Amino acid sequence: MTSIIRRATSELDLSEARSRWTRLGASYVHRYSAAGPEAWDLPRDPNWTLRLIAEHVAGITWYAEQVGVLRFGESASIR
Questions:
Q1: How far is CA 15 from CA 12, 22, 42, 56, 71, in A?
Q2: Band of the pLDDT at 3, cuts 50, 70, 90?
């Protein structure tokens, strides 16, 4: 019974993580598309430019390194 609960929880957690990361990625795509390429390097003092934000979040790998390869069902995985 414990393994069934653990498996169900893991699959629910993975489903939630996949959904959140998909929505987050889509929000970046939509915001950057709406801003247009000419806005990527415009100064936004004291805030970062859009390019610096994109480079920063693209380099964040800690979460992925902590969870490793996530499996959902028998075939799919998220890296």
A1: 5, 11, 37, 26, 10
A2: low
Distances (CA, A) of 54 to 17, 28, 30: 20, 9, 13
Q: Which residues of 40-67 are buried (b: 16+ CB within 10 A; e: fewer)?
A: eeeeeeeeeebeebeeeeeeeeeeeeee
Q: Which amino acid is at 28?
A: Y
**Cβ neighbours, 10 Å, residue 35:** 12
Is a pLDDT exceeding 90 seen at residue 43?
Answer: yes
- The pLDDT of residue 15 is above 80: no
The pTM for the full model equals 0.60
* Residue 74: both structure tokens together: 């028998």
